[in-house]
Amino acid sequence: MRTNTLHYAANKLGRSVLGSALLFCVCASVLAENHRENTHEWHYLGGDSEHTRYNTSDQIDAANFTDLEEAWVWDGASFNAQSGRSTPSYINGVLYTVAGPRRHVVAIDPKSGETLWSYREPHTARYQYSMRKDYGKGVTYAEIDGRGVIYITSPGFFLTALDAETGRPLAGFGEKVPVKGFPNTGVVDLLKDLGHPYDPYEGLKLETGYITASSPPIVVDGVIVVGNSHEQGYNQSRRENIPGDILGYDARTGEFLWKFNVLPGPGEYGHETWENDAWEWTGDISSWAPLAADQENGIVYVPTNGATLDFYGGFRPGDNLFSTSLIALEAKTGKRIWHFQLVHHDIWNYDTPTAPVLLDVTMDGKNVPIVAQTTKQSFVYAFNRLTGEPLWPIEEKQVPRSKVPGEKLSETQPFPTKPAPYDIQGLTVDGLIDYSDELRAKAVKNLEPYEIGPLFQPPLHRDNDMGKLAALWCPGDIGGVNIDGPAAADPETGILYVTSRKHCSSRIIAPGSERDKLIKEPTGTTITDYAVLRSSRVPLPDGLPLFKPPYSRITAIDMNTGEHLWWVPVGETPKKVLDHPAVKGKDIGNTGSGTVAQMVVTPTLLMYTDVASDGTPHLFAINKTTGKSVGKVEIEEKTNYGIMTYTDVGRQYVILQTGPTLTAVALPSDSDDHMDAH
What we know:
Elements: H1 6-12, E1 21-24, H2 28-37, E2 38-39, E3 69-75, E4 89-91, E5 94-99, E6 104-108, E7 115-120, H3 125-129, E8 140-144, E9 147-153, E10 158-163, E11 187-189, E12 218-220, E13 223-226, E14 246-250, E15 256-260, E16 292-294, E17 299-303, E18 325-330, E19 336-341, E20 357-363, E21 366-374, E22 380-384, E23 394-398, E24 412-416, H4 437-446, E25 450-451, E26 470-471, E27 488-490, E28 495-501, E29 507-511, H5 512-516, E30 530-535, E31 552-558, E32 563-569, H6 575-578, E33 598-601, E34 605-611, E35 617-623, E36 629-634, E37 644-648, E38 651-658, E39 661-666
Parallel strand pairs: 25-26
Antiparallel strand pairs: 1-7, 2-37, 3-39, 4-5, 5-6, 6-7, 8-9, 9-10, 10-11, 12-13, 13-14, 14-15, 16-17, 17-18, 18-19, 20-21, 21-22, 23-24, 27-28, 28-31, 29-30, 31-32, 33-34, 34-35, 35-36, 37-38, 38-39
C-alpha cells in the first residue's frame, strides 16, 4: 500500500497536532545602544522560522529604489570566507552570521560593517573531512532566561551555544568535549547521540559512514532541532552509510531529548518500504536544507534528500521512507505528526533543496495554515501544515521504468494538480530552441545519443541495448528550484514567489567498481553494482541554449487559489545570445539569464539579484503585485545565496552575500527618507 495515503489515517485516529579562539573587538555599551534602537528584525536565515524572506521595512520603495548606494562592505577574508552562502540575522541591533570553512560565528555592527566579536571551533579531523564546510547558511537565535543565545552546527557536527552579546560559550550548556582546545561549556557533540561508534577527534570510521551539517538548527518550543548532511550522493560508490536522524536538545541545557529515525527499523512506521534488509546498513536521507517551524503549534518541518546513493538504488528496493520527504514533527517529543514522500525511491537527486515556506491563506472563506515545499521537479507541494492534508489533490501517476539491471523503481510518482508546474518537466522536440529551423535541427541531432522523455525519466546505464550514451532527465538535479534560489513569500497576501531555471541532467551510469577507483576516501565497504561515473553534457546548438526561453524565471503563485499570477524572466538576456548571428535582428524579448534569483520581499517590492545582459551584477526591483519592473542598481559582485533587509536607527539596509564579503546598500545617508524610523 502506498505510504503517502497511510499518514492521513494516523491523523484522523487522534494524533495530536500540535574555537579554540574567541575574539573580541567591541565593548558592551555598543551592543546596549543597539538594543534600544532595533526595528524590523530578521531572526533566521529565511527572515523568520516560516522562511518567508519577508520584512516589514518599507523605506526603500519604487520612488527611491534607484537611489540606492553602497553603505559598507564587510570583508570575510580573515575568516577565509569564500562561498558567501550564509544569510545574516539582524537581532537586537546586531548582525550575526557564519563565515569560512571553520564556520566562524561573527557579530557585525549593522551601521558600519565593523566586526564586533567572533568565535571559532577548535580543529578536528572530522571537520577536515567534511564537505561544503563554507556553506553554513546562517545562525539560529533564541532567548533563554531573558538572555539572547546564538546556536550553530558545524562541519565537524558539533552544536554550539554562544551568548549573543559577548560571543562567549553559554555557561551550563552541554558538556566538556574531550578534545584539546574546546571550551568547558557551550558545546554538544552530536555524534554521541546518533548511536554509532566514533572517536571525538576523528569522528566516524569511513567504512561506517559520514555525517556533517550544512544548515543551522532551529529552536522550537524550547527545543533545538538539529538537521544534518552527508557526502553528495554522486560522490558515493558503496552502499553502507549512516542515516541522517533528526536530533532534539534542550535549548537551555543542551540535554539530549529525542531522536527521529529517518530510516525506520522493525516496528516503526514505514519499515516495510525498505526491502532487502537495506534499513540495516544503508543511510543518508539527511535534512541538509534548512528546517522550518510553526512556533505557535510547536511543529518543525523537515525536508529530506534521497538515500545512499544518487542515480542507482538497486540494492535498496522499495519506496524508502523517509527519503525525499517532508516530515512534520512535534518539537517537544520528536514524534511524527504527518509526512508526505515527494519522490518514491529517489534515484534522480531530487532532494528537497530549500526550506519549506509557512503561510496562512484563505480558502472557501476560511483561514488555513499551510506549508509549501518547492522542488527541483518544478512542483509546489502544498499541505495544511497541521494535518498534512493536501490543499489540492495529489495524484499518483505512472512513470517510466528503469532499464538498469537490478533497479526497481516505483511504478508511480505523486503529481500535484495545483499549483501548475512553474518550469520545465520532461523534454520533447517542441521544447527545444526555435530561433530557426536550422538551430532546431542541430538541437535534435545533438540529442540523438540520449534517451529523452517525460518527468521522472530514469538514468540509463552505459553499454545499454539501445546504443544510447545516456538518458537525459528534465528538470535535472540543478533545475527547477535549488539551494541558491530559496523561495520567498508575502504573509500578508499569501503569494509565493518561486525562482527556477531550465536544466536537464545526464549521467553515465557504469559499474560501481569504476567509480570507486576515482573516489579518494569512499564511505562504506560494499561497492554497488552501478554508480554514476561522470556527467554527460549535451552539445549546445552553435553555442546557444538547448531550450526555448525563458531560461530562468520568477513565478508568483497565489496560494489562496493555487493559481499563477504572473511570471518574469530573471535578469536579462545574455550578451552571447543577443549578439549571436542566428538571432540578430530578431525580437526574442527577455530570455532571462539562466540563473536563479536571490530574493527578499518588503511591503511593496520584490527585490532580487542577478546579472544584466553584459554580465554586470545588479540588484533588481519589481512590483510584487504586478511583476512590473521598478528599476535596477549595479552592484560590485554577484550574490550567491539569500539576500536580506532590515532597518536600523531609521535607515533600511539590504545585505548582499557577495562571495567572501557582505555588501550593504542603502539610500544616501543625507536622504530625508531614512530619518523616519517607520
